[in-house]
Amino acid sequence: MKYLWTELTSAELRSLKDEDPIVLIPVGAVEQHGPHLPTGVDGYLAESVCVGAAKLANKSGLRTVVLPVQWVGYSPHHLSLGGSLSLSCETLVAVLTELSVSLVQQGYRRVLLVNGHGGNGACVDMAATDAGRQMYGQGIIGALSYFSLVSERQSEFRESGSGGMGHACEFETSLMLSLYPELVEMERVQDHIPQPYLQNTNNDLFGSKKVRIYREYSAVTPNGVVGQPSLATSEKGEIIFEICCEELAQTIKNISEKEITN
């Protein structure tokens, strides 16, 4: 079975509407990920999790298809470390909103933006809100960050303490070792756990961020890393990937069961 939108013909996609599919839009970023990971990490991982979840959902009879990755996200805070690209939040919101609306206008009634980059969070949420308002009563448009789905299950794979999973860290490096090992240079790994900028906040992927203040990443970390990638393993990445796919597939199921009403 084909899971990628771009592998299907227009005739197949027209027929697909009759199955009331869930359409996933992976949203990534092109930005530095320390000395050991490529700049495309967030896009690679968002797409991989989407496809993995689509396969699980389809096994349960929930037809799911994955759009091309929106590669460039909102990453101005990474530009100072080089090798990064960024859109403005306004541009990213506009692109994701228009993509979502165009899908619902064609009859694809269930759309989920699947974000893979923390810096995109507010923009992705806004896009889902704006598109959902425009298409209210005609479709459901949701948004989430795939890594947020696994927070309650982190004890199944985590070794590091607070701050060990942030950026180019134990979490992302393990996933990349499992899915794209040829792109990881473990011999260049450097750990870095910065001190929290404010009380009651931290830099952990699953930590509390009660107050948000913009900071250049070069002020947070000298090497682009936040966390302990030295703890990453391929085996750990396999566990993380399985959990991510399971949790996203469950979200797909939940969306599929909702009636679309005004």
UniProtKB/TrEMBL annotation:
InterPro entries for the chain: Creatininase-like_sf, Creatininase/forma_Hydrolase
Keywords: Hydrolase, Metal-binding, Zinc
Short name of one Pfam family: Creatininase
Signal peptide from the UniProt entry: none
Cofactor requirement: Zn(2+)
PANTHER family per UniProt: 2-AMINO-5-FORMYLAMINO-6-RIBOSYLAMINOPYRIMIDIN-4(3H)-ONE 5'-MONOPHOSPHATE DEFORMYLASE, 3-DEHYDRO-SCYLLO-INOSOSE HYDROLASE
UniProt family annotation: Belongs to the creatininase superfamily.
Protein name: Creatininase family protein
